[in-house]
Amino acid sequence: MNLYTCWVFSQKEVVLYRWPFFSSVKSKNSQRYTINDKELGYSEIFIVLDCGIKLQGLSKPFTWPVTVYYEDTDAGGVVYHSNYLKFFERARTEMLRSIGVSQQVLLEQNIGFVVRHMDIDFIQGARLDDSLQVITNIYELKRATLVFCQEIVNPDGKALCKAMVKVACIDNQKMKPKAMPTFILTELTNSDC
């Protein structure tokens, strides 16, 4: 499965459009195209990125280690399915922390991130004491939402679980969608995760 996204750099903000936004853009990784859009009235640069099996997206992969503890397993000694969601959540949090986005600062500013939608594929179970890696990429970035591509792999690199997670930025008091602060957008677009 190949999913394509065009990353548009404008002077004001970063905007993303799903393929096929511009029909002459070809599906080559990291290729730059300059176009003139009649509606926009100026040139934009498009970069096509492949977010497929290897989960290559808008950022360099962020990898977070996980060790499977007894509390993570079911009676059969296999990781209970809901614990994969915890692993994914922790990796997203650590990715944000690694680029300087603190959950505590967000709380103080009444900003929160909530999971809006998740597609998950459980491929193979992990067991007690397994050392795993959670690989996280930003697939799509909009003003109030982020889509992460995530996968949990064993030491051999075999995928055990994959997920596409749409996260929305909200005002914690009003519980309504809110545009992400500029500093977060800047950190996400300029990070070396």
TrEMBL record:
Its EC number is 3.1.2.-. It is an enzyme of class 3 (hydrolase). Gene3D superfamilies: Hotdog Thioesterase (3.10.129.10). Keywords: Hydrolase. It comes from the Bacteria. Pfam families: 4HBT_2. The keyword Hydrolase applies. GO terms for molecular function: fatty acyl-CoA hydrolase activity. InterPro entries: 4-hydroxybenzoyl-CoA_TE, HotDog_dom_sf, Tol-Pal_acyl-CoA_thioesterase, YbgC/YbaW. SUPFAM superfamilies: Thioesterase/thiol ester dehydrase-isomerase (SSF54637). Belongs to the 4-hydroxybenzoyl-CoA thioesterase family. This is Acyl-CoA thioester hydrolase ybgC (Modular protein). The lineage of its organism: Bacteria, Pseudomonadati, Pseudomonadota, Gammaproteobacteria, Vibrionales.
